[in-house]
Amino acid sequence: MLVFASICPHPPIILPEIGGAELVKVQRTVEAMKKLAKIFEKANPEKVVIISPHPTPGHGAQVPLFYLLKNLPDLPMEELSITFDSYKDHYEWGKKEGRKYQANPARIAFVASGDLSHRLKEEGPYGFHPAGPAFNQKLVKLIEDKDRKGVLNLDPDLIENAGECGLRSICFLFGVLDNQKYQPEILSYEGPFGVGYLVANFKIQ
Prior knowledge:
By secondary structure, the chain is an alpha/beta fold. The chain has helices spanning 16-19, 27-43, 59-68, 87-103, 131-144, 148-152, 156-162, 167-176, and strands spanning 2-8, 47-52, 77-81, 108-113, 182-190, 197-204. The longest helix has 17 residues, at 27-43. This is Extradiol ring-cleavage dioxygenase class III enzyme subunit B domain-containing protein.
């Protein structure tokens, strides 16, 4: 059964050994990840499944799991990698996987790893584009509203100009949650380095 679902960012800078003094600039994200880890532990999962834009041994899984598995280091883990297929294809893929999770007697935790727009600031990795903050604001609102159709029908030009990396993971998550009662909870959102970091919990009901 599905007992936990979340969206996690994956910037290596939120790891203490990498972020160092810069960690203070992403304190909201760090604190949200710590809060999410407590929710994760309380859910008492028997396995965690994570989908990421960056396959092993990339930071897509390592960064979120640094926090989530801190007190559960031996928890079995399965990593899935996004493909070049469409956002709708990832949603349908997530639906298939979600049915398996919901039918499985084991307690499954699911994590969608990904950052939002990389174009929030001139000094960011891809410079600034007005589509960056517009995309992030719209996507966060759609997630809060449980509007999967809105997520799947975002303007392609907005997506392209935003320079995101996590949308396919999020579409997969919405597929996983299809026919599942849940309540989204935005734990934090910030973009101090020109990249949007979203931490969200989905309370499984």
